[in-house]
């Protein structure tokens, strides 16, 4: 999900740069429409903009701004496919994604869509331009961005077990790993157990060693007493001795 948010922020940043050049974009569309002798119908699809750039664009400035618009649309389309790998889908989020993919389709008719407040892209057009020519194409990107933000909001409210990480693995395994972690920690902290026979053998060995030590001390004491008796002999009162 963090990767999705980062990608969305990058697209928004590029769009803000594009938005500062909206008049350049409208001028490029106007000139390429004239070159294509296509001044009656509105600019109503991404494919139409692509065709103008590929076949009717005569200067680098117009090509740059048209290409910028198409690149943002392409990035949004890629992000739509990425969102499908992050979330397993429910009715709300799937509906949002389907709308985004439809809007970004090269053949989809954009002539009737309009970005509403707080977006003011349509307000920067004249009444004729907004109604008859460019109102739909300038509304495309802000509407899709709003839809993707709505997707993120809905997805973050869902239980984590219905999410998938962006590498394609299931978050269920991650949840199970987190649940098993305390058990693994408890096992690692438990001192190694000793087999009952080993404990008994150790106890018996200690007892034998203790008894042997007592026997040695007692023997040494007796030997000392005997040795002392041989050196001094029994006590006798002073005087003549037979």
Kindly describe this structure.
- The chain has nine helices and no strands.
- Helix 1 runs antiparallel to helix 4 and helix 3 packs antiparallel against helix 4.
- With 242 residues, the protein is mainly alpha-helical.
- Helix content is 69%, strand content 0%.
- It has helices at residues 2-19, 22-35, 46-56, 60-86, 91-104, 127-132, 135-156, 171-189, 196-232.
Question: Any key phrases for this structure?
Answer:
0% strand, 242 residues, mainly alpha
Number of distinct beta strands: 0
User: Helicity, in percent?
Assistant: 55-70%
Largest sheet data:
none
Mean pLDDT: 79
Radius of gyration, in angstroms, nearest whole number:
44 Å
Distance between the termini: 115 Å
Low-confidence runs (pLDDT<50, min 5 residues)?
Answer: 165-177, 194-198, 224-231
Lay out the secondary structure.
Blueprint (H helix, E strand, L loop, with lengths): L1 H18 L2 H14 L10 H11 L3 H27 L4 H14 L22 H6 L2 H22 L14 H19 L6 H37 L10
Overview in brief:
The chain is an all-alpha fold. The chain has helices at residues 2-19, 22-35, 46-56, 60-86, 91-104, 127-132, 135-156, 171-189, 196-232. It is built from nine helices and no strands.
């Amino acid at each position: 999900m963090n990767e999705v948010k980062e990608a969305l922020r990058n697209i928004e940043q590029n769009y803000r740069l594009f938005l500062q050049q909206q008049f350049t974009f409208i001028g490029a569309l106007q000139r390429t429409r004239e070159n294509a002798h296509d001044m009656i119908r509105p600019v109503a699809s991404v494919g139409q903009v692509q065709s103008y750039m590929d076949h009717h664009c005569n200067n680098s400035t117009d090509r740059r701004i048209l290409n910028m618009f198409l690149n943002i649309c392409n990035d949004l389309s890629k992000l739509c496919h990425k969102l499908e790998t992050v979330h397993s889908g429910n009715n709300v989020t799937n509906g949002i994604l389907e709308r985004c993919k439809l809007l970004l389709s090269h053949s989809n008719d954009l002539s009737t869509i309009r970005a509403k407040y707080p977006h003011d892209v349509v307000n920067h057009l004249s009444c004729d331009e907004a109604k008859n020519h460019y109102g739909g194409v300038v509304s495309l990107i802000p509407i899709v961005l709003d839809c993707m933000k709505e997707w993120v909001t809905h997805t973050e409210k869902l239980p984590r077990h219905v999410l998938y990480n962006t590498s394609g693995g299931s978050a269920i395994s991650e949840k199970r790993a987190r649940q098993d972690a305390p058990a693994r920690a408890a096992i690692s902290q438990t001192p190694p157990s000793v087999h009952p026979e080993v404990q008994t053998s150790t106890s018996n060995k200690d007892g034998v060693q203790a008894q042997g030590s007592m026997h040695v001390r007692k023997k040494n004491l007796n030997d000392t007493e005997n040795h002392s008796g041989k050196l001094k002999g029994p006590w006798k009162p002073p005087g003549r001795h037979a």
